[in-house]
Design brief:
The complex is a heterodimer. By secondary structure, chain A is α+β, with helices and mostly antiparallel strands. Chain A has four helices and five strands; from the N terminus they run E-H-H-E-E-H-H-E-E. Chain A has one domain: Histidine kinase-like ATPase, C-terminal domain (Heat Shock Protein 90, 2-Layer Sandwich), CATH 3.30.565.10. By secondary structure, chain B is an alpha/beta fold. The chains are: A alpha+beta, B alpha/beta.
């Protein structure tokens, strides 16, 4: 098993289906439980970002789970989350700061990308008006 | 698919403990906030969120927890967490939550820390 693809409708809590798939694959390639859990959380965040911000006409997210290396000697797990939404400029997303967000009236949201980058070893985001692709890797 | 968060409470002298069971998403976060604000209205200034029953949270749920922390600071109160999974602990660290809320390994440790505060 090198690659699994999954297409999810943008419905509430369906990010958990993606996270369960990440868990199953992680266990299959004998990734440590802590790493699996980090992948799971990053996948949840990537899906939620797509659900909330993509404004995709086709209300679905495509996920691809790829075992890096080979089945007998895996090097890690790559998860690609793709939407066909309006896109955004990742370089313009402000790095959230909790002190600033603790000020009365400040939005407390906006943590998704920071969490993904903090939990995964490599993150690459490509985005245009045709959609956004987030590629995340958790390495051995 | 809906994953409703279940909450239970333990009111003690000067301290209230909220036990979570399930996924803390936006709905779960709002439910925790509803309970927390009720406890604040009852006069509790020390709240402990025991997350032993929670294996996953999302950033929207956490943002609502930040609102609760902000409210606790406003009333000169304290909020603490215990029994975080390693990933939730790491996520809270990424966000800097430890500056504003206690993070403890277990309930007895958390209670000791909260009750030791003035």
């Amino acid at each position: 098993m090198q690659e699994i693809t999954l297409t999810l409708p943008m419905l509430r809590d369906l990010e958990l289906t993606a996270s369960k798939t990440a868990c199953a694959i992680g266990e299959h390639i004998r990734m440590s439980p802590d790493k699996i859990d980090e992948v799971r959380m990053a996948v949840v965040e990537a899906c939620i970002n797509a659900f909330e911000h993509s404004s995709a006409t086709a209300q679905k997210v495509e996920l691809t789970f790829t075992v890096l290396g080979n089945a007998s000697d895996p090097k890690g797990l790559q998860v690609t989350v793709r939407d066909r939404g309006k896109g955004f400029h990742p370089e313009l997303v402000e790095d959230p700061n909790l002190e600033a967000k603790m000020r009365p009236g400040s939005s407390k949201r906006g943590w998704g990308l920071k969490i993904i980058r903090g939990l995964m070893d490599e993150v690459d985001i490509q985005s245009s008006r045709e959609g956004t692709t987030v590629v995340m890797r958790k390495l051995w | 698919m809906s994953e409703s968060l279940k909450l239970s409470l333990d009111r003690r002298d000067g301290l209230a403990i909220v036990y979570t069971d399930g996924y803390i998403n936006n709905q779960g976060g709002e439910e925790i906030a509803r309970v927390a604000y009720e406890l604040i209205d009852e006069g509790y200034k020390k709240l402990l969120l025991n997350l032993q029953g929670t294996k996953i949270v999302n950033s929207i749920g956490i943002s609502i927890l930040i609102e609760i922390i902000e409210k606790m600071i406003e009333i000169d109160g304290s909020l603490a967490f215990c029994y975080l999974t390693p990933t939730i602990h790491k996520t809270f660290h990424i966000m800097g939550l430890a500056q504003y809320a206690g993070i403890h390994e277990d309930e007895p440790t958390a209670i000791r820390a909260l009750t030791a505060e003035a």
